[in-house]
Amino acid sequence: MNDKNQSKAAMAALALLPTTPWDLLSLESVAKKSKLPPKQIRSAFPDTNALIPAIVRLFDEAVSGSLEPPDEDSSFEDLLFDSLMLRFEAMQPYREGLIALDSACRHRPALALCLYRAMRESMKKTLELLGFRNDALLSFGRVSLLLCVYQMVFYRWCDDTTPDLDKTMAALNATLQACRKTFRPLTNIHSELIRSSKD
User: Fold this and answer.
1) Greater pLDDT, 88 or 191
2) Rounded (5°) CA angle 29-65-36
3) In this structure, what DSSP letter does residue 93 have?
4) N or C: at which end does the chain have fewer Cβ atoms within 10 angstroms?
């Protein structure tokens, strides 16, 4: 299944989740909602848990398609703020489905593990977008820290009903400020990477 149809399946699942409990979500219902052949859906997704990476990739693509390339005037903190806010903005049309998915994960360890793995890969991609191309720089701890930042702000986003996501922005800014000391080594490395890329 190509990326476009995988995205259709992911969007269909998110559209169904506000009214369909995860345990009752079926690949057949996703096929019907997405208007894709059931055989094609079953071939791409062995079970509903396999939809999770496609759901996460929806927002990875939104960020990568909108984030400005880093340059010497871009601070690491600003780029990180922009990339995460772009993600939350892209998630807005799917708010109810994503909240329902988060709720389902709390009672289903296998589902939660699928989401955790997909989100770790997503946060690694986020760091790559910011200029970190060397795997040695994408250590487990740094990716985990970024995932923690996202997760903390995600719960604020869930409750944010302001039109411009003002509360989410404030929470993200406060969280990044609180983590500034921890992120400092990444900030220094990022500056060096951007400078070297211009040479």
Assistant:
1) 88
2) 20
3) G
4) C
User: From CA 57, how far away is CA 151, in angstroms rounded?
Assistant: 16
Q: Report yes or no: 113 and 93 within 8 Å, Cβ to Cβ.
A: no
Q: Identify the domain containing residue 183 by its residue range.
A: 52-198
Token pair in block for residue 167:
């509360």
- Number of folded domains that form the chain: 1
Q: Retrieve residue 78's tokens.
A: 């600003």
Judge whether 97 and 15 are in contact, CB under 8 Å: yes
CA 70 to CA 132: how far, in whole Å? 11
Q: What pLDDT sits at residue 128?
A: 84
Residue 179 within any structural domain of the chain: yes
Burial class of 74 by CB neighbour count within 10 A (0 to 12, 13 to 18, 19+): middle
Contact assessment for residue 31 and residue 43, using Cβ atoms and an 8 Å cutoff: no
Q: How far apart are the first and last CA of the chain?
A: 41
- The answer to whether position 178 is within a domain reads yes
Is position 25 within any domain? Answer: no
For helices 109-129 and 52-66, angle between their N-to-C axes, nearest 10 degrees? 20
Separation between Cα atoms, residue 134 and residue 136, nearest integer Å: 5
155 within some domain: yes
CA angle 60, 66, 68 (to 5 degrees): 115
The phi and psi torsions of 44 (rounded to 5 degrees) equal -85, -30
Tokens (6 digits) for 84: 């995460």
Comparison of pLDDT for 77 and 38, the residue scoring more: 38
